[in-house]
Structure prediction request, 221 residues.
Amino acid sequence: MLFTRTIVAMLALVCGVSPTLAQQQGSISGIVRDAYSMRPIIDAVVESKSGRAATDKDGRFHLALPRGAARLTIAADGYLTEQVDVTVDAQPVSVEVLLLARAQFKEEVVVAGKTRDPGAATSTEVSPLEVRSVAGAAENVFRVLQTLPGVNATADFGSRLSVRGGGPDQNLTIMDGVEIHNPYRLFGLTSAFNPETVQAFELTSGGFSPKYGDRLSSLLV
Prediction:
């Protein structure tokens, strides 16, 4: 006991602190980590009313504080500030502090170009080559359209279409801006359009402009 008191007194004289005050001091050491990655945080500031320290490259710190209850405030760039209550006594105290990263808000600028026709999202273009090459279609564009999703034939050998459950009378066919009232030939076995003389076929299944009339199912241009 006498030897311990002598060592404390000698350290107090070297540090310029009275022996009584040195006996009342305690030490706190610890490490500060990222709460998610568990990596050590460098240059985090750990302070209380009686002392202040910064973490080293390993995220560790050391503080000499008076004995008794103390509150540590830990702060680091990019992290939320944390407070830890500790009790300082004769034995060294070790703590581990986890800091939560501060939410980062970024300003984004969205540049949008010219919007397309609302009906374009449901439009499907069929090339004349497809009409000529689909097996069993007999170069009939309506038989080719029956292979598309949501399009069915109303008869086994006919060309009339039922688009999304609508009747054939709800389908509109337009060629060069002119409505074709009867685009079928030979009772629907063939169509009125020769794929070798047509540049392109485009089927729009709903969502087309009201300028095409009161049809509800599809528009074939």
